[in-house]
Amino acid sequence: MGKSNTAIKEASFMSIEDVPLNGFHQLMTLRSGGGWILDGYILSIIGVAIVQFSDYLKLDSFWQGLVAASAMLGTFCSGFLGGWLTDKVGRRRLFFVGPVLFIVGSLGSLWVESGVSLFFLRFLVGMGVGLEYPVAGSLLTEFLPQKNRGPRLAGLTILWFVGAALSYMVGNFILARGGVDAWRWVLASGAVLGALLFIVRIGTPESPRWLVSKGRFNEANHVIKQVYGPSFSVANMPQELSEKKVSLGDMLHSGYGKRMLFVIVFWTAAVVPMFAVYSFAPVVLEALHLKGDWASYGSVAITLLFVVGCIIATRLIDTMGRRPLVIHSFLWSSLALLGLGVFSNGAEVAVLLLFGAYALFIGGAQVLELVYPNELFPTEVRAFAVGIGSSMTRVGSAIGTWLVPMSLASIGIGNTMYVAAAVSFIGLFVSLLLAPETRGMSLEQASSLKR
After folding, report:
1. Domain span holding position 420
2. What confidence tens digit (pLDDT) does each residue in 411-447 have?
3. CATH of the domain at 410
């Protein structure tokens, strides 16, 4: 009885930010992280099948780019709406919408007969991706302890690249054993992962932070006791440091406006070159004179190096700090892209080494895409801010992806790489000016303007 009373007394003074990871946190990481595996798979699988379905559907370079960019356009539309709805109606309700959209959009590829219909199906899939960022990201962020938050959120990006690598392996396996319609099964394969994700998310509770922000203290208490134990309650939650609720207007006309600008620009600069490469990896590598096995296995190798780069960055995020990590990431990855422009007619080994260097070094910026937006904004606008950030970045990604085939045809691979390097250098410049440091802060401290 004495030990039990001591445990209760200790819990009464312990913030939920300081509790050790438990089984629920591990399950919640799987539930949210599965979305990033599927996102990486869904968005990258288009690059595997694009040559085959372009021939079958007789798509020119304009429609190839449009179909490849359609998922980003869907992400743009749903990011705004999903972020707003997540903050209004809760995280849990929308946690199942993304998997449903993945299933429907992927299965529809089995019957597609035109570039227009494939565009709309990929747009639908992109809407599911757009929901994952504000919904799954916010839900996981608001449950994680302070010391585990950075590495866990960074780890979601690793899972994205795991999904991307899986798409190339599964996609090439299907293409090698299928006929003229193999591309349909390649695009439809994402439905299997979507169904598994839907199942694993059954039973997910609502975020207690969101419940408290809506004044639903009894429900928040129930969730906290369920997750952390019967001795915990709302009293163990840290208080938001802001003196008043933060509206969208407050966010844009205060210090949060500068944070939003930083998030949009750095996130865009990190993803535009990457998505352009992923959507047209075989085409880009062929333009760099890598053909046959060099192109096929090179795509897989580069994807795995993205994973390695993200793993390294995840290990460094709390030791090196957020600001130095994003600056060094942009600096060295920009130089690698610049090298690809200079040596665009170089030997296969040189091209692969430079691509590999880009994949390794951009890992720092990639893992911070989920850490920074979720840490820099308070509970009542967190999902909306993440939704805005992901939506705006997909505008640049969609435009960049749409222009890649036309850029390769008009200005060549070397100049295309120079443009990609310029985008990355913009990310470096903005990070030098605006990147904050949030290492070692609670979620309330990191999101407050008063620190």
Report:
1. 8-13+20-204+238-447
2. 777 788 888 899 999 999 999 999 888 887 777 777 7
3. 1.20.1250.20
